[in-house]
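User: Please fill in residues for this 327-position structure.
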């Protein structure tokens, strides 16, 4: 597993870097940690276009929640690429992103999709294939901290929704979440940090994006993962800030993210492209029990209600579970 860590440690968790020509305009991109490689390729391709010629970029990557709070606190950002809607909506509340950001295009600001999967040790020695296997005696699960990582929130809601889909009540599904987090020995800050922790040998199962599992494989290290029959569709948003809306280069780059070139870059890293003409080139597994964050019959009802009920830092379900763990 040390080999995996060596392959992955070069990916910055929170990194600022400048690229592109020094002349002309610049774009400040603030993003969550996972798609760093994809954005690197997209930026390079964009700079080769007429609209991107001479445009410089400042890039920052880290845990989605931390990134949103950094922008809210004053970090420059023309475009934010975060893990989930609530992190963008925090910036709406701070009057940094327009309220109508989701109506920016036909894709509602969603630039790529994925699903929550289980990454296991080679040969799957703990025989983990379903959600019930995660809470068996002796199984350790790695998942990021839900108060810093958007990926962690996707994981939590995938678990809750899968239990509800299997016929469990709300109370039973929440009890499962509590039991699950008692099997989590450490909660890294971001999905990429969680992948590195797992790669160093900690834990038996990693809950993560399917694209993270594919990413590790593409780095030359065999990575075994299982897609549970019931899992959550991950939809990752991008939005222009009010500052970005004043910059032609930022607006051009935002539009470019749905070009075939950019969508292929996401697909090559293991994301599911949202542009259908590109998506059909990638054969990612779609489980029979796939559900979305808007599935009211599973008690999800969309991110605004989910975020308040599960992730309020004082009264939310996960705050109470974390308190029970002594965090």
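Assistant: Residues filled in for all 327 positions:
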């Amino acid at each position: 597993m040390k080999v995996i860590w060596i392959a992955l440690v070069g990916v910055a968790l929170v990194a600022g870097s400048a690229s592109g020509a020094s002349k002309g305009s610049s774009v400040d991109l603030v993003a969550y940690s996972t798609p760093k490689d994809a954005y690197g390729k997209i930026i390079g391709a964009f700079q080769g276009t007429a609209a991107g010629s001479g445009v410089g970029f400042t890039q920052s990557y880290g845990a989605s929640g931390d990134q949103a709070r950094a922008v809210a606190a004053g970090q420059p950002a023309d475009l934010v690429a975060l893990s989930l809607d609530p992190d963008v909506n925090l910036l709406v509340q701070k009057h940094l992103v327009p309220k109508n950001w989701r109506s920016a295009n036909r894709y509602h600001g969603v630039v790529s999709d994925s699903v929550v999967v289980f990454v296991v040790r080679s040969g799957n020695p703990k025989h983990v294939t379903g959600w019930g296997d995660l809470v068996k005696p002796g199984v350790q699960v790695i998942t990021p901290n839900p108060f810093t990582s958007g990926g962690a929130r996707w994981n939590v809601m995938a678990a809750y929704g899968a239990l509800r889909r299997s016929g469990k009540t709300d109370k039973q599904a929440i009890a499962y979440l509590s039991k699950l987090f008692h099997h989590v020995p450490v909660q890294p800050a971001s999905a990429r940090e969680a992948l590195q922790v797992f790669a160093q040998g900690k834990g038996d199962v990693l809950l993560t994006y399917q694209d993270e599992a594919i990413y590790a494989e593409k780095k030359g290290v065999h990575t075994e993962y299982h897609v549970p029959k019931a899992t959550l569709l991950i939809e990752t948003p991008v939005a222009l800030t009010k500052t970005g809306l004043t910059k032609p280069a930022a607006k051009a780059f935002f539009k470019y993210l749905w070009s075939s070139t950019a969508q292929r870059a996401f697909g090559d890293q293991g994301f599911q492209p949202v542009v259908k003409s590109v998506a059909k080139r990638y054969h990612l597994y779609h489980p029979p029990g796939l559900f979305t964050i808007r599935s009211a019959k599973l008690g999800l009802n969309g991110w605004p209600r989910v975020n308040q009920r599960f992730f309020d830092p004082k009264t939310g379900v996960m705050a109470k579970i974390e308190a029970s763990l002594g965090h």
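For context: The chain is about 35% helix and 15% strand.
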